[in-house]
Amino acid sequence: MNSVDVAACLTKAYQARLDRLDADAPGTLALCLRVVDRYVKFLHQPASTSSAVKNPAVYPQVGPWGLPLASNSANRNSAMYPLERFYNTHESGVSISNESVKLGAGGFGSSRVGAEEALLRWAQRSNPPIRISPEVLTALADDAPYSEVTLDHLPNLAVYVAATIAGTALCHYDAYFQVENGVALPIAGPEFNADCGSTRFFGSLDGDPAAFEDASSYGPDLTDSLSISRWAGGRFGSSCTITLRYAPDFDVEPLNARCEGPSCPALAQVARKWAEAVQAGPQKALNQSRNALSQRQRDAFDALQKSEKGDYSGDPANYKPENISYGVPLALPVLIDDALYRAKLGHAGLGWRIYADWIVTFEKVEDGQAEHAATFRIAMTKGGLLNAKVEVIQWVEVPPK
User: Fold this and answer.
1) How many H helices and E strands in the chain?
2) Is the model's pLDDT at 74 over the cut of 60?
């Protein structure tokens, strides 16, 4: 076969792939729209009428990476992941596979085998034994020796994924394969977008085998995301992604306070008021706080800000609530009982991870100095659903020239 024949063959294969993806798109879009419709109905029905949870979730009392939540309430944690509550109910049509198994012990400092060896041991113990092709072993990341290998099985099919999650960003390294005649051969995985920080699982939707990716956020953007790829015609079809955006909901009582004295309850309510105001619009909140001051008070606050570095409120480019972290907080002048305070507000976080809750600190301003008065953590969770967006993901491999 000459170069012209090779090019023609590749072009034909490429066009066939495009045609197949185009054929997938309408059904895939309808799939996610159907799930959105069910989710909206689920949110609108009273909790008492919701069907029983199929896979009861034990919501931990710690957040991601072991950080404590702002509350010791399971309801608080559940409120940050409403989509998870939905797809664990009968109304969703989603059934999560219970065939996921962990291959070997995980964790730093434990007795570990490499990812390849863990998969090979599983294959040898299978009945009958399975031979893992070299291509599958190559696809499985073995550069994170302390990451546990998880094997998930697509229900009623000889389709598997061997996966590791590595690094502080929790990135996926997946090897999808299908067992044919006792040999595990590589296959293309579902077309998902979130390579890091998401949860992937096999299951079914309305009885059809499918792969799922939950990339819901614990951060201040207050969004959920679910991608679905059905198995049909011997392959994973195009994925659809549902993105859900919520209004903020604030806990009535601030939590994890550092405050002493009889004025703390009143200060807590002021902290919540300004957290809500900044969430609604940082620039408007800043203008509102400054307009309440006398000229003398404005001058005193501005002099304090100029004497210190890190005046976050001076950079208009960052006037978006989701961008304000407590490491570089927004500073507002606040009057409490006619006394001038500096309020510092920002989202709680650890390193590069930014969480939804607001940290609010009050410093009393006197004689050009700022003295700490109180700090509160204002819990912010996902409230009412604002909107939903559905997209079809179609990754296409472009043939070489």
Assistant:
1) 8, 18
2) no
From CA 24, how far away is CA 14, in angstroms rounded? 15
CA 16 → CA 3, 10, 232, 234, distances in Å? Answer: 20, 10, 17, 16
**Rounded to two decimals, what is the model's pTM?**
0.79
Q: Going by DSSP bridges, is the β-strand pair 183-186/131-132 parallel, antiparallel, or unpaired?
A: parallel
**pLDDT greater than 50 at residue 343:** yes
Q: Which burial class, exposed, middle or buried, applies to 130 when counting CB atoms under 10 A from its CB (0-12, 13-18, 19+)? A: buried
CA distances from 245 to 37, 82, 168 (A): 15, 11, 26
Provide the residue ranges of all domains of the chain, joining segments of one domain with +. Answer: 15-247+384-393, 252-378
Q: Which residues have CB under 8 Å from 333's CB, separation 6+?
A: 289, 290, 293, 297, 298, 301, 340, 341, 342, 343, 365
CB of 116 closer than 8 Å to CB of 137: yes
Q: What is the DSSP letter of 69?
A: P
Residue ranges in 260-398 assigned as alpha helix (H): 264-280, 282-291, 295-307
